[in-house]
Amino acid sequence: MILSVSRRTDIPAFYSDWFFNRIHEGYVDVRNPMNAHQVSRIKITPDVVDCIVFWTKNPYNMLMRLDELKEYNYYFQFTINPYDKQIEKNVPFKTTILETFSKLSQQIGSNRIIWRYDPILITDKINVAYHVKYYEELAKRLESLTTKCVISFVDLYKKTITNTKIINLQEPSQSEMRYLAEKFVNIARKYGIQVLSCAESINLSEEGVEHGCCIDPNLIEDICGYHIDVKKDKNQREECGCVESIDIGAYNTCCHACAYCYANFNNEKVRSQSSKHHKNSSLLIGDLSEDDVIKIRKVGLLKSHRLF
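Structure (tokenized):
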């Protein structure tokens, strides 16, 4: 099993104590996003977890506790964008984030920390020149700390448009995407970083950007030291190259308050949800009730016995 922690919220930033409690307990309960009273109980001990994939903008709270994961394989997707607090309201200042990135890389190795630069968006104040300038500022500070950068361009879903009216957020045009991709590749190459795209329909291979995937079977095999048998995740968009994983997060619980967020409905909902969190629950938010139906999810290692 590949454990996703998490596409739906930033568990390392806001709920790491809860996560470590679940690791020590050996299981986690996850509500079905489409049916609140349907709960999956998932065993998460090392004998069934091939790899944990962490998604975060700030894993600082985990740095001193990584030894508690010594029996697990894992890597981090670490997002650092060039945006201010009007767009990423509760994300720490860049100097703090870059220091955390450096410490994490030194602890786990540059191959196990992926720099995410996404979503790439355009506003009245942020144009392609802005992105080129600050991409290089970040890339040169991340030299030797990572080997890969995953980029993606913003998608204007209805709730994204509603939450970003004040900054007049726009999707980059295809010509802007190609321009940025080429510039990023040239910049990243100077600092030993490969640029990949995430769930993009546009083909940027001529600009030097191949389609990548966040739940990456090749990287997982490198980290685990063995082959895995796993299929493409059919629950993700067609353009997404990720393989199957089990996500233990919950929507409307990330407290970064990023204007472009896909996983939060609004900040009021987030405040309501996060106030119900306590670190000793088996659920990320709230507790089990008499109306809940718990089903044990069948899980196991994906380790393959194939020779080639």
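The first strand starts at residue 2 and ends at 5. The two ends are 21 Å apart (CA to CA).
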